[in-house]
# Entry
Amino acid sequence: MSPADAPEFWNSKLRGPICFNPPGVRSVLPTTLKRTEMVLAGRTKAEIVEGNKAAFEKGELPPLEPGAMSYMMSKDAYLTDGGGHNLAHLMFYTPPLDGKAWGADLPKSPVMLIPQFKDAQPIDVFIVPVSRWSDGSIAPVM
# Structure
């Protein structure tokens, strides 16, 4: 799920259990599966980016549906090699827009903007931390 320019684009240690809502399943998950298929086939980053972009342009990947979101709230996730490896959060998928409209990346704002699929689909991801893991226990703060 990482952008192609992310240092951990295909880090085999990452584990990111994710639950999509129905619009996310229909419009975001297919892109994820397409990228994974190409990675497992041994394609280069450039081939993966171009393959996803071409699939989107040909209509083989669906456009983003309004209301697409997902939950990443498993204590067992491993999302990065850097520092704390996990964060209980919600992700809201939108067309590209100014992140300030959501308060993203502003001082003291918990909202983060990740231009997730800029290499395949024009989708931004707003990450909003939550205070509890999926089992109801308290999650650490950012």
About this structure: The first strand starts at residue 19 and ends at 20. Residues 45-57 form the longest helix (13 residues).
